[in-house]
Amino acid sequence: MSEDLEALAGEYVLGVLPSDEEHAFEVRMRTDAEARAWVDYWRASFAEWSQALPPAPVPHVKDRIDEAIFGKPTFKRWERVLLHPFFVPGIVLVILAATLLKVLLIPH
Fold first, then answer.
1. Where are the transmembrane segments (predicted)?
2. What angle do CA 78, 80, 84 make, to 5 degrees?
3. Helix/strand/coil (H, E, C) string of 15-38?
4. Tens-of-pLDDT digits for all 108 residues of the chain?
5. What is the count of structural domains for the chain?
6. pTM
7. What 3-state DSSP class applies to 107?
8. Is residue 89 part of a domain?
9. 96 is in which domain, residue-wise?
């Protein structure tokens, strides 16, 4: 049981528990001194680790790394049009409108 409590406390400190389990664990900590002790232990352990790690890079660093490895993405004008999210629905709408006009306006 103690190993389960140790793992549960570690997951709680890391913030990886589902919200319902996190809430249940918080309720348990109100009355369970061992659970609180494990949480304190993991917070202290993770604090030591986080001080030893370099700060996380700013978000645009990954883009610059990808660009250095793979090159800057270059799209020609027609590629940007084809990749636009409204391109295919727009074409479908134009075809449907043309078909509807043909059916309604051209006598048989």
1. 81-105
2. 120
3. CCCCHHHHHHHHHHHHHCHHHHHH
4. 577 899 999 999 988 888 889 999 999 999 999 999 999 999 998 887 767 767 666 767 777 877 888 777 666 666 666 777 777 888 888 899 888 888 888 776
5. 2
6. 0.47
7. coil
8. yes
9. 74-108
